[in-house]
Amino acid sequence: AGAQSDQASHGRRQPARRLRDLRNGGLHRLQPRQGVLLPHRIEDGSCPAQTRDGLSEDDIRTMKYKGAQENEAHRRLKALIEGSLLADPRFQDVLAEKVWRGQRDPTSLWRPDIQARLDGLRIAFEAQLTTTFLDVVIGRKTFYRAEGGLLVWVLPHFDPAYRQLTIDDLLFNNNANVLVVDRESAEASEAAGRLMLRCAFRRPVMKAGGLGSVWESELVAWDDLTIDLEGQRVFAFDSEGEERRLIRERNQALAAAREAADQRLRDSLLAIATGRAADGDWKARSAVWQALKAQYEARDLVLPGEYEIDQRFRNIACGVASALAGRPVGYGFDKLIQVAHHLADNFPEALVSFGHALRSASHQGVLKDQERQGRWTRKAAGHRDGVRTGDPAYDILEEMRALLRFVFPSLSAALT
Protein backbone atom coordinates (compact mmCIF):
# COMPACT_ATOMS: atom_id res chain seq x y z
CA ALA A 1 0.00 0.00 0.00
CA GLY A 2 2.82 2.35 0.84
CA ALA A 3 4.47 1.65 -2.49
CA GLN A 4 1.19 2.28 -4.37
CA SER A 5 0.68 5.56 -2.49
CA ASP A 6 4.21 6.62 -3.28
CA GLN A 7 3.73 5.72 -6.93
CA ALA A 8 0.50 7.74 -7.13
CA SER A 9 1.97 10.78 -5.39
CA HIS A 10 4.93 10.82 -7.73
CA GLY A 11 2.99 9.89 -10.90
CA ARG A 12 4.23 12.90 -12.79
CA ARG A 13 7.84 12.19 -11.96
CA GLN A 14 7.65 8.52 -12.96
CA PRO A 15 7.82 8.98 -16.81
CA ALA A 16 10.75 11.34 -16.41
CA ARG A 17 12.51 8.80 -14.21
CA ARG A 18 11.91 6.04 -16.80
CA LEU A 19 13.23 8.25 -19.57
CA ARG A 20 16.34 8.94 -17.46
CA ASP A 21 16.79 5.22 -17.01
CA LEU A 22 16.60 4.65 -20.76
CA ARG A 23 19.14 7.40 -21.39
CA ASN A 24 21.49 5.61 -18.98
CA GLY A 25 21.30 2.52 -21.14
CA GLY A 26 18.17 0.88 -19.78
CA LEU A 27 20.30 -1.37 -17.56
CA HIS A 28 18.28 -1.03 -14.36
CA ARG A 29 14.76 -1.79 -13.26
CA LEU A 30 12.82 0.30 -10.75
CA GLN A 31 11.98 -1.67 -7.57
CA PRO A 32 9.19 0.36 -5.81
CA ARG A 33 9.36 -1.43 -2.45
CA GLN A 34 13.02 -0.75 -1.82
CA GLY A 35 12.99 2.53 -3.74
CA VAL A 36 16.36 1.68 -5.31
CA LEU A 37 17.56 0.68 -8.74
CA LEU A 38 18.97 -2.82 -9.06
CA PRO A 39 20.74 -4.42 -12.05
CA HIS A 40 19.05 -7.22 -14.03
CA ARG A 41 19.86 -10.59 -12.59
CA ILE A 42 18.85 -12.57 -15.68
CA GLU A 43 18.89 -11.57 -19.35
CA ASP A 44 16.43 -13.89 -21.03
CA GLY A 45 15.63 -11.74 -24.05
CA SER A 46 12.36 -10.42 -22.59
CA CYS A 47 13.77 -6.93 -22.07
CA PRO A 48 14.64 -4.77 -25.06
CA ALA A 49 17.66 -3.33 -23.24
CA GLN A 50 20.14 -6.18 -23.57
CA THR A 51 23.84 -5.85 -22.92
CA ARG A 52 24.89 -9.39 -23.70
CA ASP A 53 25.30 -8.58 -27.41
CA GLY A 54 28.50 -6.75 -26.55
CA LEU A 55 27.41 -3.31 -27.73
CA SER A 56 29.70 -0.52 -26.69
CA GLU A 57 28.50 2.77 -25.24
CA ASP A 58 29.18 4.46 -28.60
CA ASP A 59 27.11 1.80 -30.38
CA ILE A 60 24.19 2.37 -28.03
CA ARG A 61 24.41 6.16 -28.43
CA THR A 62 24.51 5.78 -32.24
CA MET A 63 21.41 3.59 -32.19
CA LYS A 64 19.60 6.09 -29.97
CA TYR A 65 20.59 8.98 -32.23
CA LYS A 66 19.39 7.19 -35.38
CA GLY A 67 16.15 6.21 -33.66
CA ALA A 68 15.56 9.81 -32.62
CA GLN A 69 16.22 10.98 -36.18
CA GLU A 70 13.81 8.37 -37.52
CA ASN A 71 11.08 9.36 -35.07
CA GLU A 72 11.48 13.04 -35.87
CA ALA A 73 11.34 12.37 -39.62
CA HIS A 74 8.25 10.24 -39.08
CA ARG A 75 6.56 13.00 -37.12
CA ARG A 76 7.39 15.55 -39.80
CA LEU A 77 5.96 13.35 -42.54
CA LYS A 78 2.77 12.70 -40.55
CA ALA A 79 2.37 16.42 -39.95
CA LEU A 80 2.77 17.15 -43.67
CA ILE A 81 0.19 14.49 -44.57
CA GLU A 82 -2.25 15.79 -41.99
CA GLY A 83 -1.76 19.39 -43.08
CA SER A 84 -2.24 18.47 -46.74
CA LEU A 85 -5.51 16.71 -45.92
CA LEU A 86 -6.78 19.58 -43.79
CA ALA A 87 -6.08 21.96 -46.70
CA ASP A 88 -8.67 20.05 -48.73
CA PRO A 89 -12.15 20.68 -47.25
CA ARG A 90 -13.52 17.58 -48.95
CA PHE A 91 -11.59 15.34 -46.55
CA GLN A 92 -13.46 14.93 -43.28
CA ASP A 93 -12.63 13.36 -39.90
CA VAL A 94 -8.89 13.80 -40.34
CA LEU A 95 -7.42 11.92 -37.37
CA ALA A 96 -3.86 11.09 -36.31
CA GLU A 97 -2.88 7.84 -34.54
CA LYS A 98 -6.44 6.72 -33.92
CA VAL A 99 -7.41 3.05 -33.78
CA TRP A 100 -9.28 1.65 -36.78
CA ARG A 101 -11.25 -1.26 -35.36
CA GLY A 102 -12.66 -3.92 -37.69
CA GLN A 103 -16.41 -3.77 -38.16
CA ARG A 104 -16.77 -7.50 -38.77
CA ASP A 105 -14.18 -8.54 -36.20
CA PRO A 106 -13.79 -5.98 -33.36
CA THR A 107 -10.64 -7.78 -32.18
CA SER A 108 -8.97 -6.97 -35.50
CA LEU A 109 -7.56 -3.47 -35.57
CA TRP A 110 -4.83 -1.20 -36.94
CA ARG A 111 -3.64 2.22 -35.91
CA PRO A 112 -2.91 4.13 -39.14
CA ASP A 113 -0.71 7.21 -38.92
CA ILE A 114 -3.45 9.41 -40.41
CA GLN A 115 -6.98 8.56 -41.44
CA ALA A 116 -9.73 10.54 -43.12
CA ARG A 117 -13.01 10.23 -45.01
CA LEU A 118 -13.75 11.35 -48.55
CA ASP A 119 -17.22 10.93 -50.10
CA GLY A 120 -17.98 8.04 -47.76
CA LEU A 121 -14.64 6.33 -48.37
CA ARG A 122 -12.51 5.79 -45.30
CA ILE A 123 -8.79 6.15 -46.08
CA ALA A 124 -5.75 5.16 -44.03
CA PHE A 125 -2.47 7.00 -44.75
CA GLU A 126 0.72 5.27 -43.58
CA ALA A 127 3.94 7.29 -43.40
CA GLN A 128 6.62 4.89 -44.59
CA LEU A 129 10.20 5.42 -43.44
CA THR A 130 11.42 2.22 -41.83
CA THR A 131 11.43 -1.32 -43.13
CA THR A 132 8.01 -2.89 -43.44
CA PHE A 133 8.12 -6.49 -44.54
CA LEU A 134 6.03 -7.65 -47.47
CA ASP A 135 3.82 -9.85 -45.29
CA VAL A 136 2.94 -6.78 -43.19
CA VAL A 137 2.11 -4.80 -46.33
CA ILE A 138 -0.14 -7.62 -47.56
CA GLY A 139 -1.70 -8.04 -44.10
CA ARG A 140 -2.72 -4.40 -43.95
CA LYS A 141 -4.05 -4.48 -47.48
CA THR A 142 -6.19 -7.47 -46.58
CA PHE A 143 -7.57 -5.71 -43.48
CA TYR A 144 -8.52 -2.46 -45.23
CA ARG A 145 -9.95 -4.27 -48.26
CA ALA A 146 -12.24 -6.27 -45.95
CA GLU A 147 -13.26 -2.99 -44.29
CA GLY A 148 -14.16 -1.38 -47.60
CA GLY A 149 -11.47 1.21 -46.91
CA LEU A 150 -8.32 2.25 -48.73
CA LEU A 151 -4.69 2.00 -47.66
CA VAL A 152 -2.28 4.63 -48.98
CA TRP A 153 1.46 4.38 -48.36
CA VAL A 154 3.29 7.72 -48.36
CA LEU A 155 7.04 8.35 -48.49
CA PRO A 156 8.95 11.53 -47.59
CA HIS A 157 11.07 11.27 -50.76
CA PHE A 158 11.97 8.79 -53.47
CA ASP A 159 15.17 8.14 -55.39
CA PRO A 160 14.90 5.35 -58.02
CA ALA A 161 18.67 4.91 -57.91
CA TYR A 162 18.58 4.09 -54.19
CA ARG A 163 15.74 1.83 -53.20
CA GLN A 164 15.37 -0.47 -50.26
CA LEU A 165 13.72 -3.85 -50.53
CA THR A 166 10.75 -2.35 -48.72
CA ILE A 167 10.29 0.29 -51.41
CA ASP A 168 10.42 -2.41 -54.08
CA ASP A 169 7.66 -4.24 -52.19
CA LEU A 170 5.54 -1.08 -52.24
CA LEU A 171 6.28 -0.55 -55.94
CA PHE A 172 5.29 -4.11 -56.74
CA ASN A 173 2.04 -3.72 -54.83
CA ASN A 174 1.17 -0.28 -56.23
CA ASN A 175 1.59 -0.59 -60.00
CA ALA A 176 5.19 0.73 -59.86
CA ASN A 177 3.96 4.07 -58.42
CA VAL A 178 5.24 5.78 -55.28
CA LEU A 179 3.35 8.58 -53.54
CA VAL A 180 5.41 11.26 -51.81
CA VAL A 181 4.36 14.08 -49.51
CA ASP A 182 7.04 16.71 -48.99
CA ARG A 183 7.12 20.41 -48.22
CA GLU A 184 6.58 21.37 -51.85
CA SER A 185 3.51 19.15 -52.23
CA ALA A 186 2.13 20.36 -48.88
CA GLU A 187 2.48 23.99 -49.97
CA ALA A 188 0.81 23.11 -53.27
CA SER A 189 -2.09 21.55 -51.35
CA GLU A 190 -2.55 24.72 -49.31
CA ALA A 191 -2.36 26.92 -52.40
CA ALA A 192 -4.83 24.82 -54.41
CA GLY A 193 -7.15 23.90 -51.57
CA ARG A 194 -6.90 20.36 -52.89
CA LEU A 195 -4.79 17.41 -51.80
CA MET A 196 -1.63 17.36 -53.92
CA LEU A 197 1.01 14.64 -53.90
CA ARG A 198 4.19 13.94 -55.75
CA CYS A 199 4.01 10.69 -57.69
CA ALA A 200 7.08 8.87 -58.97
CA PHE A 201 6.34 6.10 -61.43
CA ARG A 202 8.10 3.72 -63.77
CA ARG A 203 7.28 4.26 -67.46
CA PRO A 204 8.03 1.17 -69.57
CA VAL A 205 9.72 1.90 -72.90
CA MET A 206 10.64 -0.36 -75.77
CA LYS A 207 14.32 -0.27 -76.65
CA ALA A 208 16.42 -2.06 -79.22
CA GLY A 209 17.45 -4.66 -76.66
CA GLY A 210 13.90 -5.22 -75.42
CA LEU A 211 11.67 -3.76 -72.75
CA GLY A 212 13.21 -1.09 -70.52
CA SER A 213 11.92 1.69 -68.32
CA VAL A 214 12.49 5.29 -67.27
CA TRP A 215 11.45 6.96 -64.04
CA GLU A 216 9.29 10.06 -64.05
CA SER A 217 7.94 12.24 -61.28
CA GLU A 218 5.18 14.84 -61.26
CA LEU A 219 2.95 16.73 -58.88
CA VAL A 220 -0.59 15.39 -59.14
CA ALA A 221 -3.93 16.12 -57.50
CA TRP A 222 -5.77 13.40 -55.64
CA ASP A 223 -8.51 13.59 -58.30
CA ASP A 224 -5.98 12.61 -60.97
CA LEU A 225 -5.13 9.34 -59.24
CA THR A 226 -6.66 5.99 -60.11
CA ILE A 227 -8.22 4.31 -57.06
CA ASP A 228 -8.25 0.51 -57.12
CA LEU A 229 -10.11 -0.57 -53.99
CA GLU A 230 -9.95 -4.29 -54.74
CA GLY A 231 -6.20 -4.19 -55.33
CA GLN A 232 -5.66 -1.52 -52.64
CA ARG A 233 -3.68 0.53 -55.12
CA VAL A 234 -3.47 4.27 -55.77
CA PHE A 235 -1.51 5.34 -58.84
CA ALA A 236 -1.12 8.15 -61.34
CA PHE A 237 0.29 6.12 -64.22
CA ASP A 238 -0.78 2.63 -65.25
CA SER A 239 2.68 1.13 -65.54
CA GLU A 240 1.44 -2.45 -65.82
CA GLY A 241 -1.09 -1.51 -68.50
CA GLU A 242 1.57 0.36 -70.49
CA GLU A 243 3.90 -2.61 -70.25
CA ARG A 244 1.21 -4.95 -71.54
CA ARG A 245 0.45 -2.55 -74.39
CA LEU A 246 4.10 -2.32 -75.43
CA ILE A 247 4.54 -6.08 -75.28
CA ARG A 248 1.35 -6.60 -77.28
CA GLU A 249 2.46 -4.12 -79.95
CA ARG A 250 5.92 -5.65 -80.09
CA ASN A 251 4.47 -9.15 -80.47
CA GLN A 252 2.11 -7.94 -83.17
CA ALA A 253 4.98 -6.28 -85.02
CA LEU A 254 7.10 -9.43 -84.71
CA ALA A 255 4.21 -11.58 -85.90
CA ALA A 256 3.58 -9.27 -88.85
CA ALA A 257 7.26 -9.31 -89.79
CA ARG A 258 7.34 -13.10 -89.48
CA GLU A 259 4.21 -13.45 -91.60
CA ALA A 260 5.64 -11.12 -94.25
CA ALA A 261 8.83 -13.19 -94.37
CA ASP A 262 6.80 -16.41 -94.56
CA GLN A 263 4.69 -15.01 -97.38
CA ARG A 264 7.82 -14.13 -99.34
CA LEU A 265 8.95 -17.74 -98.95
CA ARG A 266 5.55 -19.01 -100.10
CA ASP A 267 5.54 -16.73 -103.10
CA SER A 268 9.08 -17.79 -104.06
CA LEU A 269 8.22 -21.49 -103.90
CA LEU A 270 4.92 -21.12 -105.76
CA ALA A 271 6.67 -19.06 -108.44
CA ILE A 272 9.01 -21.99 -109.05
CA ALA A 273 6.25 -24.62 -108.74
CA THR A 274 3.83 -22.90 -111.11
CA GLY A 275 6.43 -21.46 -113.47
CA ARG A 276 7.34 -23.18 -116.70
CA ALA A 277 11.11 -23.42 -116.89
CA ALA A 278 12.79 -22.63 -120.17
CA ASP A 279 15.41 -24.95 -121.65
CA GLY A 280 19.07 -24.18 -121.00
CA ASP A 281 18.75 -22.41 -117.66
CA TRP A 282 19.08 -25.50 -115.45
CA LYS A 283 22.11 -24.19 -113.50
CA ALA A 284 20.42 -20.93 -112.65
CA ARG A 285 17.27 -22.76 -111.54
CA SER A 286 19.33 -25.11 -109.41
CA ALA A 287 21.14 -22.26 -107.64
CA VAL A 288 17.83 -20.57 -106.82
CA TRP A 289 16.40 -23.86 -105.59
CA GLN A 290 19.34 -24.55 -103.28
CA ALA A 291 19.09 -21.09 -101.72
CA LEU A 292 15.35 -21.55 -101.20
CA LYS A 293 15.89 -24.98 -99.62
CA ALA A 294 18.23 -23.42 -97.06
CA GLN A 295 15.62 -20.82 -96.08
CA TYR A 296 12.94 -23.49 -95.66
CA GLU A 297 15.26 -25.69 -93.64
CA ALA A 298 15.72 -22.76 -91.24
CA ARG A 299 12.00 -23.20 -90.53
CA ASP A 300 12.32 -26.99 -90.18
CA LEU A 301 10.60 -27.57 -93.52
CA VAL A 302 11.95 -29.84 -96.24
CA LEU A 303 11.68 -29.00 -99.92
CA PRO A 304 11.58 -32.22 -101.99
CA GLY A 305 14.04 -32.29 -104.83
CA GLU A 306 17.81 -32.13 -104.68
CA TYR A 307 18.69 -29.73 -107.50
CA GLU A 308 15.28 -28.55 -108.62
CA ILE A 309 11.67 -28.95 -107.57
CA ASP A 310 10.33 -32.49 -107.28
CA GLN A 311 7.67 -33.13 -109.93
CA ARG A 312 5.35 -34.88 -107.50
CA PHE A 313 5.36 -31.89 -105.15
CA ARG A 314 5.08 -29.54 -108.09
CA ASN A 315 1.85 -31.21 -109.22
CA ILE A 316 0.45 -31.29 -105.69
CA ALA A 317 1.16 -27.57 -105.29
CA CYS A 318 -0.16 -26.69 -108.74
CA GLY A 319 -3.26 -28.79 -108.10
CA VAL A 320 -4.03 -26.91 -104.88
CA ALA A 321 -3.31 -23.53 -106.51
CA SER A 322 -5.61 -24.42 -109.43
CA ALA A 323 -8.42 -25.60 -107.16
CA LEU A 324 -8.21 -22.39 -105.10
CA ALA A 325 -8.17 -20.21 -108.24
CA GLY A 326 -10.91 -22.15 -110.06
CA ARG A 327 -8.72 -22.39 -113.18
CA PRO A 328 -5.46 -24.10 -114.21
CA VAL A 329 -2.37 -22.67 -112.51
CA GLY A 330 1.06 -23.92 -113.60
CA TYR A 331 -0.37 -26.02 -116.42
CA GLY A 332 -0.96 -25.50 -120.14
CA PHE A 333 -4.58 -26.64 -119.73
CA ASP A 334 -7.63 -24.55 -120.52
CA LYS A 335 -10.06 -25.96 -117.95
CA LEU A 336 -9.92 -26.96 -114.30
CA ILE A 337 -11.39 -30.38 -115.06
CA GLN A 338 -8.33 -31.14 -117.16
CA VAL A 339 -6.20 -30.58 -114.04
CA ALA A 340 -8.46 -32.98 -112.12
CA HIS A 341 -8.09 -35.74 -114.73
CA HIS A 342 -4.32 -35.18 -114.93
CA LEU A 343 -3.89 -35.59 -111.15
CA ALA A 344 -6.22 -38.59 -110.95
CA ASP A 345 -4.37 -40.40 -113.74
CA ASN A 346 -0.76 -39.48 -112.84
CA PHE A 347 -0.51 -38.17 -109.27
CA PRO A 348 -3.27 -39.73 -107.11
CA GLU A 349 -1.45 -38.60 -103.96
CA ALA A 350 -2.41 -35.03 -104.96
CA LEU A 351 -6.16 -35.69 -104.95
CA VAL A 352 -6.83 -35.30 -101.21
CA SER A 353 -5.31 -31.82 -101.00
CA PHE A 354 -6.92 -30.95 -104.36
CA GLY A 355 -10.34 -31.92 -102.97
CA HIS A 356 -9.84 -29.90 -99.77
CA ALA A 357 -8.88 -26.86 -101.82
CA LEU A 358 -11.97 -27.25 -104.02
CA ARG A 359 -14.27 -27.31 -101.00
CA SER A 360 -12.42 -24.45 -99.29
CA ALA A 361 -12.87 -22.19 -102.33
CA SER A 362 -16.37 -23.58 -103.17
CA HIS A 363 -15.24 -24.51 -106.69
CA GLN A 364 -16.80 -27.99 -106.93
CA GLY A 365 -19.40 -26.47 -109.24
CA VAL A 366 -16.69 -25.53 -111.74
CA LEU A 367 -15.91 -29.22 -112.31
CA LYS A 368 -19.59 -30.07 -112.69
CA ASP A 369 -20.08 -27.33 -115.27
CA GLN A 370 -17.05 -28.52 -117.27
CA GLU A 371 -17.84 -32.24 -117.06
CA ARG A 372 -19.04 -34.18 -120.14
CA GLN A 373 -20.81 -37.59 -120.07
CA GLY A 374 -20.14 -38.08 -116.33
CA ARG A 375 -16.60 -39.27 -116.84
CA TRP A 376 -15.12 -37.28 -113.94
CA THR A 377 -17.92 -38.23 -111.59
CA ARG A 378 -17.26 -41.94 -112.11
CA LYS A 379 -13.50 -41.50 -111.81
CA ALA A 380 -13.79 -39.37 -108.65
CA ALA A 381 -16.06 -41.97 -107.01
CA GLY A 382 -13.47 -44.72 -107.54
CA HIS A 383 -10.69 -42.58 -106.09
CA ARG A 384 -12.90 -41.58 -103.17
CA ASP A 385 -13.39 -45.24 -102.30
CA GLY A 386 -9.65 -45.80 -102.45
CA VAL A 387 -9.02 -42.93 -100.03
CA ARG A 388 -11.69 -44.18 -97.61
CA THR A 389 -10.27 -47.71 -97.58
CA GLY A 390 -6.78 -46.42 -96.81
CA ASP A 391 -5.09 -47.19 -100.13
CA PRO A 392 -1.41 -46.07 -99.70
CA ALA A 393 -1.43 -44.69 -103.25
CA TYR A 394 -3.09 -41.56 -101.83
CA ASP A 395 -0.74 -41.10 -98.89
CA ILE A 396 1.88 -38.38 -98.62
CA LEU A 397 4.65 -38.15 -96.05
CA GLU A 398 4.17 -36.00 -92.95
CA GLU A 399 7.01 -33.68 -93.99
CA MET A 400 5.14 -33.07 -97.25
CA ARG A 401 1.94 -32.36 -95.30
CA ALA A 402 3.83 -29.90 -93.08
CA LEU A 403 5.15 -28.15 -96.18
CA LEU A 404 1.67 -27.89 -97.69
CA ARG A 405 0.27 -26.48 -94.43
CA PHE A 406 2.91 -23.77 -94.55
CA VAL A 407 2.52 -22.91 -98.23
CA PHE A 408 -1.30 -22.96 -98.06
CA PRO A 409 -2.17 -21.74 -94.53
CA SER A 410 -5.90 -21.51 -95.31
CA LEU A 411 -5.91 -25.31 -95.68
CA SER A 412 -3.79 -25.99 -92.59
CA ALA A 413 -6.58 -27.53 -90.48
CA ALA A 414 -7.94 -29.66 -93.33
CA LEU A 415 -4.50 -30.92 -94.35
CA THR A 416 -3.75 -31.86 -90.74
Structural features, described:
- With 416 residues, the chain is an alpha+beta fold.
- It is built from 15 helices and 13 strands.
- The chain has a 4-stranded mixed β-sheet with strand order 3-6-7-8.
- β7 (121-127), α4 (134-146) and β8 form a beta-alpha-beta unit.
- The protein is elongated, with a radius of gyration of 40 Å.
- The N and C termini lie far apart (96 Å).
- Residues 1-53 and 60-66 have low confidence and may be disordered.
Tell me, what's the shape?
Answer: elongated
Q: C-alpha Rg, in Å?
A: 40 Å
Percent helix:
40-55%
The termini sit apart by 96 Å
What is the residue-mean pLDDT, rounded to a whole number?
82
Main sheet specs: 4 strands, mixed
Parts with pLDDT < 50 across at least 5 consecutive residues: 1-53, 60-66
Structural class: alpha+beta
Determine the strand fraction and express it as a percent band.
15-25%
Q: Can you count the helices?
A: 15
Number of strands: 13
Widest beta sheet: strand line-up: 3-6-7-8
- String of helices and strands: HHEEHEEEEEHEHEHEEEEHHHHHHHHH
